[in-house]
Write a structure and sequence with these properties.
Layout (H helix, E strand, L loop, with lengths): L2 H10 L5 H10 L10 H5 L3 H22 L2 H21 L2 H17 L3 H17 L3 H17 L3 H17 L3 H17 L3 H20 L4 H10 L1 H17 L5 H12 L3 H9 L9 H26 L4 H28 L1 H7 L6 H7 L7 E5 L5 E6 L4 E6 L2 H7 L1
Helix pairs in contact: 2-16, 4-5, 5-6, 6-7, 6-8, 7-8, 8-9, 8-10, 9-10, 10-11, 11-13, 13-14, 16-17
């Protein structure tokens, strides 16, 4: 059964009788792959052959890169070097720059900082030549990271400050958050804690905004898992500020950030299942959804009838294309409903409880809340009662995990 047919089964479940659904299952034809026309490939110009060889080397390097072991990284380097050389011969400057950037990234990951700089600096002018401003920002950011690791903080700052306006110019909000995080890390290492606090707060605001714009539940959970480092850094910074200024409430804010950092996917999923997210949505959008459902039901019935008799490949292809287009349109409408639903926004943009709200809404006189945050360097515990809170610094997560 094709992916489109699986998708519409859920849509049509209430619209088609059980025998109709069974017919769909048995009449769905398997999809066969189209073989490559090797004769056509052999007749391509030499330049295309060079690019194909470069693509092959790059793909092989990418497969090794994905394994993310020291050995696979080392094996990937000659593949990317071969790709870069061939892309240069083919005049593919953009792909050449990407290959060089990957080599720089690998050397940086292996701790060979000078070699990383060598390849990043080869990639950077190529990205400027092809006007890849997003790629340029990423490379500048990574060069800044290398200089930061080498202890050359001022140089690192120069590259971060070049990357940030480029991130904003191309609308790369994820890249902007990453650059802000690097700036915060650098400023904290220089003892500029308040400046670092401003940068990481801005980065977290972007992350929270991006998370709420992802309407697919699985993708939202996956994205949130990739940005946990930002929250850990934020908590560490707040607790460091708490040590210096214990009366400012930084520990309470750290507790709130810890709450924000926790995966809320299960709560969101349960809430969405029990909430009519269509309430308050434009009636025209709701009518469009209903119309698409009806069209899908009618088109699927026509498909079943067609496949029950004699048909040509062209007829089969035409009706399956029609169904695919309807499913795509239905998914777009579903996304619009989520975006425009006030109730859905309330689900996907939950606000963590503050210390005062926890004490007033969650705790009674006989209850003590213990919340912890485990980190690579330090961990923290907050003990919250109805009338007060005490925070504790704990060992790093690896030491705690050994005990348990």
């Amino acid at each position: 059964m094709t992916t489109n047919h699986k998708q519409i089964l859920l849509i049509l479940f209430k619209l088609i009788s059980l025998p109709g659904i069974i017919s769909i299952l048995f009449l769905s034809a398997p999809v066969t792959a189209t073989p490559t026309n090797t004769k056509t490939i052999a007749q391509q110009p030499q330049n295309t052959d060079i690019k194909a060889a470069a693509d092959k080397a790059f793909t092989e390097g990418g497969e090794l890169f994905k394994q993310k072991t020291a050995e696979s990284f080392k094996q990937a380097i000659p593949k990317f070097q071969e790709a870069a050389k061939l892309y240069q011969e083919a005049g593919e400057k953009r792909s050449q720059s990407v290959s060089l950037h990957e080599i720089g990234y690998i050397y940086n990951s292996l701790g060979e900082k000078q070699k990383a700089l060598q390849f990043y600096n080869q990639a950077l002018p190529l990205k400027r030549v092809v006007a890849d401003r997003g790629g340029e920002a990423t490379t500048l950011n990574n060069i800044g990271g290398v200089y930061s690791d080498l202890g050359e903080k001022q140089k690192a700052l120069q590259f971060y400050n070049q990357a940030l306006p480029l991130d904003r110019a191309v609308g790369d909000r994820g890249g902007e958050a990453n650059t802000l995080w690097h700036l915060a890390y650098l400023q904290r290492s220089q003892g500029k804690l308040n400046a670092a606090l401003i940068q990481i707060q801005s980065a977290i605001n972007i992350i929270e905004d991006l998370r709420t714009k992802i309407t697919n539940q699985n993708l939202r959970t996956s994205y949130f898992s990739t940005v946990q480092g930002y929250y850990k850094f934020y908590i560490d910074l707040l607790m460091e500020l708490h040590k210096k200024q214990p009366s400012k409430g930084y520990d309470a804010l750290a507790l709130q950030v810890s709450e924000s950092s926790r995966a809320r996917s299960l709560l969101e999923l349960i809430s969405e299942a029990n909430t009519d997210i269509r309430t308050g949505v434009d009636a025209k959008l709701m009518q469009a959804e209903e119309n698409i459902k009806q069209q899908l039901a009618q088109t699927e019935k026509r498909r079943v009838q067609l496949l029950s008799g004699k048909y040509t490949p062209a007829q089969k292809q035409a009706i399956e294309t029609e169904i695919a287009n309807l499913v795509e349109e239905y998914e777009k409408i579903q996304t619009q409903i989520r975006i425009n639903s006030p109730r859905y926004a309330a689900i996907t943009q939950p606000q963590p409880l503050s210390l005062k709200e926890i004490q007033q809404q969650v705790l009674d006189e006989n209850t003590l809340l213990l919340e912890y945050s485990l980190g690579e360097d330090k961990s923290y515990l907050w003990a919250v009662s109805k009338t007060g809170m005490t925070s504790y610094e704990l060992p790093k997560s690896s030491e705690i995990e050994q005990v348990f």
